Structures are given as C-alpha cells and as structure tokens.
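Q: Got a minute? One more chain.
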Amino acid sequence: MAKAIYSLKIYLFREQFRLTRLTPKEESALRSICIFIVRLYIKVWFNSPSSIKTPLQGLTFMKNLLQYASIDNLDKDLSQIAVKKFCGHLWYLSAELCAFDFFDEAVPLETKRKMIHALNNDECLSELNSNAQRLIIFAKNANELLEKEIDDFICVNTKNLFKRFAINTTFLNENPLM
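A: Always. Here it is, folded:
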C-alpha cells in the first residue's frame, strides 16, 4: 500500500516538480496505476484484515480484475498483469475456507441458502487439488471465475472448518432472517 500511496502522491503533485517533469508516457502509466488503485484496490486493501470477508472479496476482486480491461477502455496490460499475479493468491477459495462466508454480512441471504444446500454436495470443484485442498487457477483459465459464485466453492469438505474449530453447526438449520 505504501507504493500505492506514493504513486497517488506523485500523480497529484506532478505539476509542482518543475525540474523533474514526467514524460507523457510516464504520466500516462502513472495515471493508469492510480485509476486501478482507486477503482479496485483500495476497497480490497481496507477490508483485508477481515478473514471472514476474504473468500467473497477475493472472488469479487478477481472478477473485477477480469472485467477491468473493458472499463472505459483502460489499460489492458495492467489488468492482465494483475490477473496473473492474483491467480497465485486464491488459496482462500478452498472449500474449507469458504465456510467463513457463512459469517460475512456482505453475502446475500439467498446465496447463504445456496451455500447451505451445497454443504451436502460430495463433488467439490474439479479445480481443487484433493491433496492440498487449494484452488489452482492459471491466468489463461481465469475467465472461468466470471461464471462462479461463492456457493460454487462450498461442498461437503466445507464442514471440516466447523469440525476443526468445534463450531456447533445447528445455526445452519435455522432461517438466516431470524
């Protein structure tokens, strides 16, 4: 985040540096980075300390990254680089860690109902490596995530988080509106 803040400051105060003017190419690149920071990165960064929000937030961020290139014809290279980098950070989209989304207020109730229904699904996403229980997505296949919702990552293995921490799961049988 320090580099992001530094980039924003350079762009905001670029006219004050008469001796070290930015070239048009540098200014354009810096502008693209600043737009990326403001449109996508800041919200994710401020919510990052909350582990409960991580699975949905990460999936949403990845979808936003994939769609970013089409927003106002912005820099496609920046979007592709970010997608490639972020593909290595999807470890929390495992079936077990997606259980955190049952406690996330940002997850709509209808989605939570779908998640509860999916808990009895014996087949987890085919992308999951059964040994590591980790989602493996390569940048060339990342567009597949555009069609996924958080309930697609829930399966019978999700119950392992509740077992691991001895969390009583009776709340899953109750109406989430109450």
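A: The radius of gyration is 20 Å.
Q: Perfect, thanks.
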